[in-house]
Write a structure and sequence with these properties.
mainly alpha; about 170 residues; single chain; 3 domains
Length: about 170
């Protein structure tokens, strides 16, 4: 590769044009015998920087363009009673409102999704229904039995079997 600034500029222009045409960074790096990081660095040098000022400027330009479109299509919608032009004006106004942040946020409904019972819960339910055919141990059959309903249930041991067997706490 040539180290002259003019060669670097033409190389950067070549890389930019190839990427804009859809070619992959890997393909370009193979052709130029460089790494993909070199291709990315070249793109960083040639592409414009996106700063807050650039975003503000772009939004201002877009708003100005939209105003020009509204002028043309609003006249056509009113004078020629053109429904398509009227619809386009509404879409342009919606886009302007979105750019300016005038639309209120959409309401989101939070929906709680019930999870399907785990295999443990299903097995426990079946075993308890076999043990207590009328439902719960106290006899009221209103709700299906759960593991917590079993009066013979032993609490889950804390620690390992070795700790429990040796008497350690």
């Amino acid at each position: 590769m040539n180290d002259s600034p003019q060669a670097d500029e033409s190389r950067d222009d070549f890389i930019l044009q190839e990427r804009l045409s859809g070619r992959s960074a890997r393909s370009i790096s193979k052709e130029l015998h460089c790494s993909t990081a070199d291709v990315d660095a070249s793109l960083d040098r040639t592409l414009p920087k996106i700063t807050n000022e650039a975003k503000r400027r772009m939004a201002a330009l877009d708003l100005d363009r939209l105003d020009g479109l509204i002028e043309v299509f609003y006249k056509r919608a009113i004078e020629k009673v053109d429904a398509q032009a009227g619809l386009l004006v509404v879409k342009i106004l919606e886009r302007k409102a979105a750019l300016l942040g005038l639309d209120s946020p959409q309401k989101l409904d939070i929906v709680q999704v019930q999870q399907a019972p785990s295999s443990y819960d299903r097995i426990t339910s079946v075993l308890l229904s076999l043990k207590y055919p009328n439902g719960r141990p106290n006899g009221d059959g209103d709700a299906p039995p759960t593991a917590l309903d079993d009066p013979d249930r032993e609490p889950i041991a804390i620690g390992t079997d070795r700790e429990r067997d040796s008497g350690a706490t």
